Amino acid sequence: MSRLGSVQKKVPCLFVTQVKEEPSTKRECQPFKVLATETITQKALDADIYNAIPTEKVDGTCCYITTYKGQPYLWARLDRKPNKQAEKRFKRFLYSTDNSKGFTWDTEDDFKPVPECWIPAKAIDHYNGKPFPDENGHIPGWVPVEKNSKQYCWHTSVVDYEFELGLVLKHHTEESDLLEISPVPLSDLSEQTLELIGTNVNANPYGLGSKKHPVHFLVPHGAFQLKKPPALNHSDLLSWFSGCNEGKIEGIVWHCSNGHLIKLHRHHLGLSWPIVDPYLTSQPVIVTFSGAKHDYNFESKTLFNHFSKLDGQRFSSLRNVVWDL
């Protein structure tokens, strides 16, 4: 599959941000908001943001495809975080300086243990050859998702390791206004990051499936390029998010030519998320399992088996797909 940038570190905001002492619309019990100013960051300018490719920021949990046990595997995001003692020291330092620069980490003793199979994200900083925490004190990384994992059961629902397939939601290759649900070889997704979305992820902002019939998909990062993106200024972006159908999304991620990613979330503009009728679920969709319907013997109660039976069917919108398994 064609691909854009990969999410292997924290993605910075398009604008310089400021903290406002008001209750957050993003996180409950957070007594402040992080809002965008009208100034584009130097980091975005250095990345040639005006020539970057704008894409929809999809609301889910980040995943990664890379090799494990000799075959392509789905990996779940797992940040290595400080232990209690180190976190207290780090917070005291932040309160005194408002900046994490200059804080001394002991990467051997300051962090909670992670599984032996854990790997650090590719784009993070290293110090003395070891992964180094970001400005939030976390070391982003990944763990492989085993077939029968209870902790990552929703991740496992979108992969079939026997046939090495992922259940992917993307644009149809020939009809740009049409979404497509299809099985994609994990090898075609190798070294890509994706978003897992669905019934049991992030409170299901897209209203997919139900408690009785949960449904999840993988969405490659950068899969949904914006057709008519707004100009890169605060007022035009605010108008686009609040008054345009295509703007009914969580945010924008710009994929820059140097591989850097820049983002803007609705919350940065003081706008709410989730919202009623997001743009993603209003689009028509087709289920394409041509070949897979006959070439694979999927387990009966899986999403792969369910959608293989809907091969070729079109639905007026993603929210109208038949979910009953």
What's the short story on this structure?
The chain has 325 residues and is of the alpha+beta class. The chain has helices at 42-46, 84-97, 153-156, 234-243, 279-282, 292-295, 303-308; strands spanning 15-20, 33-40, 53-57, 61-68, 71-77, 119-120, 126-127, 130-131, 141-144, 159-160, 165-171, 179-185, 193-198, 216-220, 251-255, 261-265, 285-287, 314-315.
Description of the molecule:
It contains 7 helices and 18 strands. The chain is of the alpha+beta class and 325 residues long. The strands form 5 sheets. A 6-stranded antiparallel sheet has the order 6-9-5-4-13-14. Strands 10-11-12-17-18 form a 5-stranded mixed sheet. A 3-stranded antiparallel sheet has the order 3-15-16, with no helix packed on it. Strand 11 and strand 12 (179-185) form a beta hairpin. The mean pLDDT is 92.
How would the blueprint of this fold be written?
Elements: E1 15-20, E2 33-40, H1 42-46, E3 53-57, E4 61-68, E5 71-77, H2 84-97, E6 119-120, E7 126-127, E8 130-131, E9 141-144, H3 153-156, E10 159-160, E11 165-171, E12 179-185, E13 193-198, E14 216-220, H4 234-243, E15 251-255, E16 261-265, H5 279-282, E17 285-287, H6 292-295, H7 303-308, E18 314-315
Parallel strand pairs: 12-17
Antiparallel strand pairs: 1-2, 3-15, 4-5, 4-13, 5-9, 6-9, 7-8, 10-11, 11-12, 13-14, 15-16, 17-18
* Helix count from the secondary structure assignment: 7
Q: pLDDT average, as an integer?
A: 92
Helical amount among residues, as a percent range? 10-25%
Tell the overall outline: globular
Quote the beta fraction.
25-35%
The class by helix and strand makeup works out as: alpha+beta
Task: Round the Cα radius of gyration to an integer and report it.
Answer: 21 Å
Strand line-up of the largest beta sheet: 6-9-5-4-13-14
Number of strands: 18
Distance between termini? Answer: 28 Å
Uncertain ranges: none
- State the order of secondary-structure elements, H for helix, E for strand: EEHEEEHEEEEHEEEEEHEEHEHHE
Described by strand count, sense and barrel closure, the largest sheet is: 6 strands, antiparallel
